[in-house]
Design goal:
The structure is a single chain. This protein is of the alpha/beta class. The protein folds into 2 domains: 32 residues; 252 residues, Ribonuclease Z/Hydroxyacylglutathione hydrolase-like (Metallo-beta-lactamase, Chain A). 31% of the residues lie in helices and 25% in strands. Strands 6-5-4-3-2-1-13-12 form an 8-stranded mixed β-sheet. It has a 5-stranded mixed β-sheet with strand order 7-8-9-10-11, covered by helices on one side. The protein is globular and about 45 Å long.
């Protein structure tokens, strides 16, 4: 029986050695592996602050022209907004508002401040803006782009090329004067044409299509300390669109708009971080710092 005892002893030694090796390997792995919590966090270098900036009001706007199926005789005051994305050495605007006389005379905005001047509430000058991301080519979102002379301008390639054709501008809310302005920006080498959906245009900033407010409107996802903020612009006019799952009234494709809304809910860090394009309630939900400025995240 001595040989059986020796065999058993050898087995004990081998198993003990394997156990020690396993512990050592686990310790090495623990030191070198990236912790799982870190891999899911936004990298500090791509986290931004996001502000809504109110530069005016359109009074008595028909609710039924914003939310499909609502009463067009019911009127609400809507906010005119642009959005500042600040961080990583950049000051990025999402949309640029409007300022040209023809639009001012037609729409007569109340409490109006030129978008370039509204930036002063955050201590910025027009020359400080590094980028302007245009959600779509409607006058009240693109007209102010040339107020920011140093900015690179980002717009969907299909949006630009479609509305650059005069036959597509009629009764569209897109005007020749604004498309000519974008052509000038392109001649200066500052126009960036984004080719399609789910494109990262800058670190921590991604644009998405599918809202179909216009031919190829886009919305913007921004990495922040609270998670992804979705700047929906007119792909979602009001909180009511999102909360009741109702499409916007002005859309090329209502079903596509609803699909985009559902996608926004999945992309956003939380439902409250989907920011609609014209809802004055943004400044109630995010009351600080105030005076027409809302810190979203």
């Amino acid at each position: 029986m001595p040989m059986k005892q020796n065999h058993a002893a050898r087995r004990v030694v081998i198993l003990a050695s394997l156990a020690i090796f396993g512990v050592f390997a686990a310790l090495v792995s623990a030191r070198t592996a990236t912790p799982s919590w870190r891999s899911n966090r936004t990298a500090p270098e791509s986290a931004y602050e996001v502000y809504a900036i109110r530069y005016g009001t359109l009074k008595s706007f028909p609710l039924g022209e914003l939310v499909k199926g609502e009463d067009k005789n019911k009127k609400i005051d809507i906010a005119l907004m642009i959005w500042l994305v600040k961080g990583n050495g950049r000051n990025i605007l999402v949309d640029s508002g409007f300022y040209r006389d023809a639009f001012m005379k037609q729409w007569k905005p109340a409490d109006y401040m030129q978008p370039s001047e509204a930036l002063s509430k955050l201590g910025l000058k027009p020359e400080d803006i590094t980028d302007v991301i245009i959600s779509h080519a409607h006058w009240d979102h693109v007209d102010g782009t040339d107020l920011f002379p140093k900015a690179r301008v980002w717009i969907q390639k299909e949006e630009f090329e479609y509305y650059d054709q005069p036959e597509h501008q009629k009764d569209s809310g897109v005007f020749a004067v604004d498309m000519a302005m974008l052509e000038k920006v392109r001649a200066e080498g500052r126009l960036e044409l984004v080719d399609g959906d789910d494109k990262t245009v800058l670190p921590g900033i991604t644009v998405y299509t599918g809202g179909r407010h216009t031919y190829a409107s886009q919305y913007v996802g921004v990495n922040t300390s609270k998670g992804i903020v979705i700047l929906a612009s007119d792909n979602v006019y009001l909180y009511e669109n999102i909360e009741k799952s109702l499409p916007i009234t002005a859309t090329f494709d209502a079903e596509s708009n609803l699909r985009a809304q559902e996608r926004m809910k999945k992309l956003a860090g939380s439902p409250g971080l989907i920011i609609p394009g014209h809802d004055p309630a943004v400044f109630v939900k995010f009351p600080k710092p105030g005076n027409g400025i809302a810190l979203i995240s």
